[in-house]
Amino acid sequence: MAELEDRTGATYEYVNMQDSRFRWVDLEGSDFRHVGLQRVRMRGVELLDVEIDGQIQNVVVNGVDVAPLVEAELARRDPDYAAMRPTDAAGFREAWEILERRWAETVARARMLGAEPLHRRVDDEWSFIETLRHLCYATDAWVNRVYLGDPDPWSPLDLPFTTLRDLECPYDVDARPSLDEVLALREDRQATVRRVLADLTDERLAEQTTPVDGPGWPPPDRYDVSEALGTVLDEEWHHRRYAERDLAVLESRA
Predict the structure, then answer these.
(1) Eight-state DSSP code of residue 53
(2) Structural element, H or E, at residue 61
(3) Suppose 220 and one of 74, 88, 209, 211 were both cysteines; which one would form an S-S bond, judging by CB atoms 3.0 to 4.6 Å apart?
(4) Spatial separation of the C-alpha atoms in residues 131 and 253, rounded to whole Å
(5) Which helix (H) or strand (E) holds 134?
(6) For the chain, which domains are there?
(7) Which residues contact 225 (CB under 8 A, 6 or more apart)?
């Protein structure tokens, strides 16, 4: 067998490696962030002490689809999680009420740390302020842009995914707004979602959106209304979970 080429500590960023083949590759201690792993097949792997956090669907481990098991366990741990998969307009309104209530609790917890820690990153994840900025971005993308048809809904405080920052939108990636400044924008976006869901009907939920042009994500196209609004619920739920996780670390350091 050929001798292993040593690339220990190498960094690969913004690399397209679709349909690549990995044979006799040692990935111990590697860190994967914002990595697309669709249609990946692994054979003869040693998967030990691994942490995965992201969208999981049709993930078969030793012949067992683990995604439904993960979903069931998340719902068992927190019954509110099941409400994040609504199937009718009333369910969307219920889910949003839960999210606003839970986020209010999280913001109150964050305030106890003071101003400076809310700009700190834990394990190179977004800080608490950055997380709130990203949720403003998610609302602008999927509600104001996709659902309401505004081609230019963006705020300079919006924070998109790293892979989208090269788009021609007025994002100030390096901004350091105070908690109250970013909450003012967020409360405006939350009020927009409340208005949209108050008027939502089951008939509208089954329809598609009208494509809107202009720079920004997602690309101009028709989207199921349930997908657009459901994406916002998903973003809100999981980013609150990440925020609570990181607040616990910051509290322990304090």
Answers:
(1) -
(2) strand 60-61
(3) 211
(4) 20
(5) helix 128-139
(6) 55-84 (no CATH), 87-253 (1.20.120.450)
(7) 147, 204, 205, 206, 207, 208, 209
**Pick from 128, 83, 148: which is nearest to 249 by CA?**
128
Residue with tokens 């690399």: 15
Cα–Cα distance measured from residue 54 to residue 34, given in angstroms and rounded to the nearest whole number = 9
Residue with token string 């993308």 = 141
Instruction: Report residue 217 as tokens.
Output: 């994500």
Q: Which amino acid is at 132?
A: L
The encoded tokens of residue 224 equal: 């199921």
Cα–Cα distance measured from residue 56 to residue 84, given in angstroms and rounded to the nearest whole number: 15
Q: Return per-residue pLDDT of the chain as tens, 254 residues.
A: 567 788 888 888 888 888 888 788 888 888 888 788 888 888 888 888 888 888 888 989 899 999 999 989 988 999 999 999 999 999 999 999 999 999 999 999 999 999 999 999 999 899 999 999 999 999 999 999 999 999 999 999 999 987 655 566 677 888 999 999 999 999 999 999 999 999 999 999 999 999 998 888 898 999 999 999 999 999 999 999 999 999 999 999 98
Instruction: Please give the DSSP secondary-structure letter assigned to residue 209.
Output: P
Q: Are 183 and 132 in contact (CB under 8 A)?
A: yes
Distance CA 177, CA 39 (A): 40
Query: Which tokens hold the place of 80?
Result: 């509110």
Contacts of the segment 78-83: beta carbons below 8 A, 24+ positions apart: 81/237
Q: How far apart are CA 229 and CA 177, in angstroms?
A: 27
* Assigned token pair, 27: 């990935």
Measured between alpha carbons, how far is 241 from 81 in angstroms, rounded to an integer? 11
Query: What pLDDT score was predicted for residue 163?
Result: 64
Q: Is 180 helix (H, G, I), strand (E, B) or coil?
A: helix
